[in-house]
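Entry for the shared binder. Reason: the reviewer on the internal report wants the predicted structure included alongside the sequence.
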Amino acid sequence: MPSVRTLFSSLGSLRDANRARAAFDDPGRKLTAVFPPEPIRPDSTGGLSLLLRVPTDSGGDVIALIHVPASGTGVIVLVINPATTVEAGASLGELIDESGWPVAVAVVEDILGMRVDHVMSLDIEALAGIVDRLGPLAVYSAVAFSTAAGEFVVGTNHLDGVRARAFVAADPIDDAGQTRTRGQRALLRSLIAALDLGRPAKDPQELVGLFSLLAAGSRTDAGLTTSVLAGLPGRLRGLSPVNILTVTLPTTSRRDESGHVIVDVDVEAVPVLREALAGDDPIGFVRGLASLGY
């Protein structure tokens, strides 16, 4: 028979879970008109894809496509530099700011040839809260730099929420955010590793705490509900952590005549990535990208 302490703890978790579920599914907080017209969209592959945006004060937003292939053999997290030129000289970040989610989704679908099923905007404060709950996180930086939140060294940095927030927003090198995007990739890798999908399942309070932070700090399309999230464990059952891959979208960079850095989609690597994503099991190709430092 459970102890009184355990019983009240479970009841508290249940109340918190119900509040978080109500907040996440609240129709008044859902994003509307987020997808482009259906005739121009790719067909579904049977997988599940989420386009995530974490706005930052610096304009160096975290933008990532999270994809679970239909095979269920892994999870791909593709981090995209918002400065990437995608259409008529405009960057992805500029298009999102000027035209909103439908254009952003259309551009990502066009580049990758795959359907975006859901979108999520996550407050940077919520991301910091999640880091605090799981951290401190060990995150690698390729360069040393300073921010108001402190010093970051070459190599491993141990980040709490405040430092993580500064880390993903900082632009330490004049390279149009390429170094920053790799730092964002490093943080997401560490965050996903810290989630330890089996641990929250064994600790309901941990799961409810994380979900409460997510629910309070996110807005999603109407189709992304707690029921959809509840189905993810079934898709990911038995998944090895080595098959959760976080990489950057392959790009190239150059300086124009005025000295500004221009970031372009890699016209050699991305078509091959696009072909792999359309296949039955893209995990092997993306693992190759990770081994090359993407």
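Summary line for the report: The domain at 11-292 is CATH 3.40.630.190 (Aminopeptidase).
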